[in-house]
Every structure is written in C-alpha cells, then in structure tokens.
Amino acid sequence: MSIARRALKRQKKIADWESRVEALHQKYPRLGEISRLFTQMSLEIAMLGMGKGKMGMSKEELLQAQEALLAERKLLMKKHNLPGNIYEIWWDCPQCQDTGFVGIGEKCACLLEEEQEERRLFSGLTPHQQEQTFKTFTLDWYEDKDRYRAILQQCIEFAEKVCAGEKTENLFLCGTIGTGKTHLCSAIANYVLQAGRRVVYLKIGTILDLIREYKFNFEKNETIKPHQLKDLYQVDLLIIDDLGTEVSTDFVREQLFYLFDERISYCLPWVISTNLMPNEIGTIYEDRLSDRILGTSRVLKFSGTSVRQLKAMQANKIDQKESVS
Ligand SMILES: [Zn+2]
C-alpha cells in the first residue's frame, strides 16, 4: 500500500473513532459529560502553568478530580458492558499506528510484510509455485542423482549471487517436460524474493503480449502501463518460461533481442526455461539473438523420465493398493 493510501486509511480510522465516541456519548450522556469535564480540567492545568487559572482549583485538586472522573467512567463502562478499548483508535498495527514507520525512516514489521506480499504478487508465481523451494526439491526421483545434485547446487549459487547483487552468468534450463525445471525456477524465484529483491516470472507468450500491448497502445497514444514493460527490462531477476513456444516473427525476434540486450546493459540476470536444446536455439533464432541467449548463460540440461509422470504413477499405485485393501 502506498504512503498516500495509508494516510487515507488512517484518516478513515480516525473518523470511525470520532463517530464511535459521538454515538457512545449520545447513548450514555454521562460518559460524554465526563469526557468534556476531563478535557476542561486538562486545559485548566495548562492555564495554571501560565498563571491564568479560572476555576479556583489547584493543580493537585484538578488531577485528583480527573482521576475520580476516570474511575467513574471505568465503572460506567463495566456496568454497560462496553469494551475497554472503546476510547482508543482501532489501528490495524498499534506498533506504528498504521503509518508503516516506527522511527525516522525505520519501517515497521507490518510494512515490511506488506512489501514482501506485494513482491510475491508482482512476481507472477502461482500459489503452487510459491511452495516450490530448494528445500522441497528432492533428488529421489532421479536416476542420475549426482548430476541433479550439481544442477541444484548451481541454481542455489546463482540465486545467492542475485540476492547479493553480484554479477553472474544467466541460467539456461533446458530439456524434457516434467523433469524439474519449473520447480527449480520457482525455487530460485522464491529464494530471491525472500531476500527482498524483485522477480518477474512469466511465460514467453505473456511477455510478448505485454510488449505488444505496450507498443500498440503507445502508437494509439492511449493510457499505458509503462511500469510493467519497464519491469521486464529492469526487474532484479527475470524468469522466462517456455522460450521457443512463441510464434516467431520479425517483431518477436526484434523485441526479444531488445529485451536481452537491455538487461545485459543493466547487468541484470535472467533464467530461461525451455524444452529446446542449445543447438535448436541456434536454428530458431538468428545469430545475434542466440548469442545473447547462449553466450551469456550457463546451460543446465534436464533429461530422463518425467518426474511428473513418475509421481502420477506412484500416486496411482497407492490408489490401487488402497482400493484393494
Ligand atoms: Zn506497523
């Protein structure tokens, strides 16, 4: 939530509090009287400090009278079963009174949590992908465990470098469907998000739709959402899923070249996940584009039986066993 929206929300909380107290005083006039007397006495104490008292009471007498008023109010509230915090503003976060800050420039835990949630939403990760982490990536399904252990390690090292803002090679995850590429891409995204950095994870088709929408509307001079396009170029980490499934036109190749080129010039990393092998990239895309893709990347090859199929087969076996027993 922006600072402006927070300010609006705070105003609303204060207005709610005022009308709640007003309604309370209408229903229980003595409570209203107590409040007014209490305020008058506070003012009188301030005036006494300036030598301008009007009520003919000493400061001690006034403080005593105030204490008596508070005690009476407490009794009345108890008698009418009113909640103890009815005179307080009901902030969502009492720590920062919903301002988002606890000191000068120091963010409150509620704001940090909110920003993390915004980054998660912004990333485009599905709830299922948000569960896919390095910890939940298991080698049990793979025959060639050493190779996949090494792949996992390289993904972790990549994610750590991105978190630290260090220069790194990009990653090119390629191979058969269902062999764990998506899980590792999500794990990298979640790791980087956790460190407070921004990630965009999109399928190539969605990326191209965004670019098309932007260009088309830009030419028509209509309202555009440039931040979305800018984010593709400038987000801390861009993860592109399913590269190679797009319909390749001059426009698409041009835009992809521009995208990779921009990110290279900002020294910003990306991860590509694709069913295409590196040699196929060379045949689909022209040299200057395949150079941008492969020349900057570490290639991690996935192969073997689909983990997804293996999991489904095992689930079936369990189902069968359960239906037999
Ligand atoms: Zn807070």
Task: Find the count of extended strands (DSSP E, 2+ residues).
Answer: 7
CATH architecture identity of the largest domain: 3-Layer(aba) Sandwich
Q: How many structural domains? A: 2
Uncertain parts: none
Average pLDDT: 89
Number of helices: 13
Here the CATH topology of the largest domain equals: Rossmann fold
Radius of gyration: 31 Å
Q: Please, what is the CATH homologous superfamily of the largest domain?
A: P-loop containing nucleotide triphosphate hydrolases
Could you tell me how far the N terminus lies from the C terminus, measured between alpha carbons in angstroms? 54 Å
Shape: elongated
Approximately how much helix is present in the residues? 55-70%
CATH class of the largest domain: Alpha Beta
Which kinds of small molecule does this entry bind, naming each only once?
zinc ion
Quick synopsis:
By secondary structure, the chain is of the alpha/beta class. The protein has 2 domains: 77 residues, no CATH class; 202 residues, Rossmann fold (3-Layer(aba) Sandwich).
Considering the chains and any ligands shown, give keywords for the structure.
325 residues; alpha/beta; Rossmann fold; 2 domains; five-stranded parallel beta sheet; two-stranded antiparallel sheet; 10% strand; binds zinc ion
Can you characterise this structure?
- The chain has 325 residues and is of the alpha/beta class.
- Helices cover 60% and strands 10% of the residues.
- It has two domains: 3-79, no CATH class; 109-310, 3-Layer(aba) Sandwich (Rossmann fold), CATH 3.40.50.
- The strands form two sheets. Strands 4-5-6-3-7 form a five-stranded parallel beta sheet, sandwiched between helices. It has a two-stranded antiparallel sheet with strand order 1-2.
- Strand 1 and strand 2 (106-107) form a beta hairpin.
- The relative contact order is 0.09.
- It binds zinc ion (ZN).
- Zinc ion binds at residues 93, 95-96, 108, 110.
